[in-house]
Amino acid sequence: MPMRSTFVFIFLLLLLHIFMSLTEGGGNALSYDFYDETCPQVEKIVREGLSPIFLADPTSPAALLRLLFHDCQVQGCDASILLDSQGDNVTSEMSSDKNFGIRRRDAIGIIKSVVEAKCPGKVSCADLLVLAAREAVSMSGGPSIRVPLGRRDALTARSELADALLPPATTGADGMLGIFTDKGMTVEESVALLGAHTIGVTHCININMNYEGQPEEQIGGMGSHFQKFLKLSCRKTGSLAKTAFLTNDLTNLVFDNQYFRDTVDGKGVLRVDAEISRNPRTAPIVAQFAEDQNYFFEVFTSAFVKLSSSGVLTGDQGRVVRTCNGIDYGNF
Fold it and tell me: Is 70 noted as a catalytic residue in this protein?
């Protein structure tokens, strides 16, 4: 082989090696086989650990899915939302009013303790949170999503970032599209992510925020009778408004496309839910998802992988902690 051809061949091999290391876990990127050697049973542990939790509390899947979304919105998907306040060094994101109603952080701690017993110091809380949210979707009847792993855990959390970055309940379609597209989502994927509202509930305190100072306002895309129903159902104030809630749709324990069928019918609970059925950029997508559940699942899968891979810590960034709710500086 001539010298020039040999050089080109070696150069191409080097490029291939670099590409494979970045895409298959040899570098700082996420990988679909990241734990094949260090904790090959991790996905099975998560699945088996969540099954009794979901049976005991059928609302847990919705809680875990929301937990992931709120984590990824602040500092990226780094499990910072799981941290408790620790003096002046760590201010919990949970102290932000924007995280009102966030729960089942304990479920990740339970799973973490089981994983630590099997694979000490190998699996991050950030990866466990993503895997738990993935299982929440599939165990509720949604798509089975294959996710890349290799995230590392944040060492700090800042409540002021949660205050600034988590969207308020009054956010409309255009505002929510901006949030998701800034993370690399297409408009179609952004609408699919909103379809996560198909499971869970909305607290009256968030519904009431849509009408503060504008009691007669008609929200675009929301049926007038349905809007009156929401107002009557959430007339409570103060602490009662915080505990009262409405289900997001008629099948709020099942991950399906009922959410989109409801929005088409003018029964979107929050402003963004109502507006996407009329917004010119989103209305055709909503109609398609309402008609074709399998297509919704397909796009949601793509969006979930993108969202859960955004702003992650990898390689030498962050660290893998032993307990998800606090920093132990003896950790790995």
Answer: yes
Q: Indicate which residue of 70, 197, 203, 225 is catalytic.
A: 70
Residue type, 173: A
The tens digit of pLDDT for each residue in 244-294 reads 888 888 899 999 999 999 999 989 888 899 999 999 999 999 999 999 999
Which of these ranges, 144-153, 160-169, 219-228, 302-311, has the smallest mean pLDDT?
A: 219-228
79 vs 323: CA distance, rounded Å: 11
Output the six-digit token pair for 7. 């050089």
Neighbours of 98 (CB within 10 A): 20
Question: Which tokens is 229 given?
Answer: 């129903």
Count CB neighbours of 42 within 10 A: 23
Q: Does the pLDDT at position 201 exceed 70?
A: yes
- Which residue matches tokens 């051809």? 5
Helix axes 42-56, 105-118, angle to 10 degrees: 140
pTM summary value: 0.85
Which residues does 281 contact at the CB level (< 8 Å), separation at least 6? 173, 177, 187
How far apart, in whole angstroms, are the C-alpha atoms of residue 197 and residue 201? 8
